[in-house]
């Protein structure tokens, strides 16, 4: 008797009740049967597979009962992996725009034409909580569904689900690759046809913990030189998906091994092999990847859903608690109370299509990009990288502009990279001199960084771990955590004291009080008074005016 469970999700050919052939489509099952039973006419049957469908699919099928409609691509992959997808791609033989409009009307959803020439349209359903389902409709790219699927990127994304018959169509064996956890290109030209698939393949391999098959890796290397032909917007979007997704350090290492960076983000190519003096334990490139990996771990440990707090000090010291290692346990103890605020910080976006989290990872990727050009030796033979922070910020801005990031994103990126060494200065002072940042220093830090000060604190912690690696001493880590705690505490708990004290006087007040004309001196005086407030020297209007009088005597020419 046939083990029919092993054929679930496949098409089979039966002769007198026995399975004599099978395949990913009815045609493949028939062909397999004819190889051995060419004189007999088999019965072609789909072996159903238990799947958890979104109710939305039923609504779409009901809205388009007579339409030959296939769910395709990543949504089917996620369906087979028992993952919920909110991005649904539908393929139809023709008239995709018209069909999408009908679906939008039936579902009372928004409708957009994406590309009239390629007959593609988008339907967007927005729930009461703001979550969106995005439904893209496209006509076949090719003569039929199989041709359409063969023109896609990877076999795991080239599986279709027929909404009418509730059956899977898998001509390229994507289901088998899913089970084997393998990424395989759909054809020899899949990568050269659209080189952005190199980035997408690396990202998806990391997201699903899949391996990229050897022939596909070779094709990726051969197609890398075509990446400059891809629009900056598509490059940017794939980069941000990598930085937003799991294991961005692994993705970046894979891209480096594939020889991608000389054609995509070429500034990064020069970082490999650039030595650094102690306490650095890695070259500049390996350090950068380590920083990104540690940043991911820090954000995960401080996420609202994290259960990373050790249940006892003893557990933390042994590294056996939920916090993992000792350093992560200390991180949770010192900064765990800011989980909610950190979540709110990263929930804000400087651009509706890209996250603050991904932007921070981009800053981490570029924070030392200028070190190769800035490298020098002092009189003792120690390696130095003078002004690499300012030069790195400039290089990052140029790349961000080339990728068409928004002005707000570019400004935040510049702030983070330009100021990333301040955190280490504060840490060194605590460790060497037992001196915490003064109120004036904290004020000046946030005056320069603004909301980016939160990002700088997190990057600073990751940068330290990526610098010292396994040699990081608990005392140094504790000093860094003190700096992060002090900065976040002032930002979220004492903003009116040290970060943004309310003005006690305005420009008109000081002009009238000191008989001054309008000019740059007024702004300088107001800033000096505000800094005195943040330092605790001034707390009333009278004290502010008295301070201003003294400041003018010392600074007015």
Description:
It is a single chain. By secondary structure, this protein is α+β, with helices and mostly antiparallel strands. It has 5 domains: 4-46, no CATH class; 55-180, Beta Polymerase, domain 2; 190-257, Orthogonal Bundle (Hydrophobic Seed Protein), CATH 1.10.110.30; 272-498, no CATH class; 503-555. The chain has 27 helices and 14 strands. The strands form 4 sheets. It has a 7-stranded mixed sheet. Strands 2-1-3 form a 3-stranded antiparallel sheet. Strands 11-12 form a two-stranded parallel ribbon. Helix 14 packs parallel to helix 23 and helix 20 (420-433) packs across helix 22 (452-468). The longest helix has 20 residues, at 474-493. The N and C termini lie far apart (101 Å). The model is unreliable at 308-323 (pLDDT under 50).
Q: Tally the beta strands.
A: 14
How big is the Rg? 30 Å
How confident overall, as mean pLDDT? Answer: 92
Q: How would you describe the oligomerization state of the chains in this entry?
A: single chain
**Into how many domains do the coordinates divide?**
5
**Distance linking N and C termini:** 101 Å
- Note poorly predicted spans: 308-323
């Amino acid at each position: 008797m046939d083990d029919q469970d092993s054929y679930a999700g496949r098409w089979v050919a039966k002769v007198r009740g026995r399975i004599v052939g099978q395949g990913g489509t009815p045609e493949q099952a028939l062909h397999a049967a004819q190889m051995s039973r060419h004189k007999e006419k088999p019965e072609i049957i789909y072996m159903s597979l238990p799947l958890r469908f979104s109710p939305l699919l039923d609504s779409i099928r009901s809205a388009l009962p007579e339409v030959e409609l296939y769910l395709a691509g990543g949504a089917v992959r996620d369906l087979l992996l028992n993952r919920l997808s909110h991005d649904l791609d539908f393929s139809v033989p023709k008239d995709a725009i018209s069909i999408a409009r009908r679906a939008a009307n039936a579902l009372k959803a928004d409708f957009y034409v994406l590309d009239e020439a390629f007959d593609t349209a988008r339907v967007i359903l927005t729930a009461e909580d703001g979550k969106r389902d995005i439904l893209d409709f496209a006509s076949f790219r090719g003569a039929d569904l199989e041709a359409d699927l063969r023109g896609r990127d990877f076999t795991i994304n080239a599986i279709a689900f027929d909404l009418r018959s509730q059956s899977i169509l898998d001509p390229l064996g994507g289901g088998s690759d899913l089970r084997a956890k393998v990424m395989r290109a759909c054809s020899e030209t899949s990568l050269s046809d659209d080189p952005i698939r190199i980035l997408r393949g690396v990202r998806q391999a990391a997201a699903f913990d899949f391996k990229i098959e050897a022939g596909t890796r070779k094709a990726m290397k051969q197609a890398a030189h075509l990446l400059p032909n891809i629009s900056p917007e598509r490059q940017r979007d794939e980069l941000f998906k990598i930085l937003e997704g799991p294991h961005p350090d692994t993705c970046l290492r894979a891209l480096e091994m594939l020889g991608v960076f000389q054609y995509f983000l070429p500034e990064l190519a020069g970082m490999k092999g650039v030595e650094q003096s102690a306490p650095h334990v890695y070259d500049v490139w390996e350090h950068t990847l380590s920083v990104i990996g540690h940043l991911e771990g820090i954000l995960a440990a401080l996420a609202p859903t994290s259960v990373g707090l050790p249940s006892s000090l003893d557990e933390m010291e042994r590294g056996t608690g939920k916090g993992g290692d000792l350093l992560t346990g200390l991180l949770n103890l010192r900064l765990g109370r800011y989980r909610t605020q950190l979540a709110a910080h990263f929930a804000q976006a400087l651009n509706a299509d890209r996250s603050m989290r991904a932007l921070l990872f981009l800053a981490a990727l570029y924070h030392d990009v200028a070190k190769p050009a800035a490298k020098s030796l002092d009189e003792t033979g120690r390696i130095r990288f003078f002004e690499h922070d300012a030069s790195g910020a400039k290089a990052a801005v140029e790349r961000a502009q080339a990728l068409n990031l928004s002005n707000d994103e570019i400004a935040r990126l510049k702030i983070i990279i330009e100021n990333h060494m301040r955190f280490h200065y504060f840490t060194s002072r605590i460790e060497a001199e037992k001196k915490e940042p003064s109120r004036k220093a904290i004020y000046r830090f946030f005056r320069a960084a603004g909301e980016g000060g939160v990002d700088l604190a997190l990057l600073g912690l990751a940068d330290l771990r990526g610098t010292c690696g396994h040699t990081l001493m608990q005392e140094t880590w504790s000093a860094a955590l003190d700096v992060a705690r002090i900065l976040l505490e002032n930002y979220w708990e004492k903003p009116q004291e040290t970060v943004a004290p309310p003005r006690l006087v305005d420009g008109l007040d000081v002009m009238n009080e000191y008989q001054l004309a309008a000019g740059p001196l007024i702004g300088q005086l107001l800033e000096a008074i505000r800094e005195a407030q943040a330092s605790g020297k001034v707390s009333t209007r009278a004290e502010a005016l008295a301070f201003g009088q003294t400041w003018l005597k010392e600074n007015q020419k």
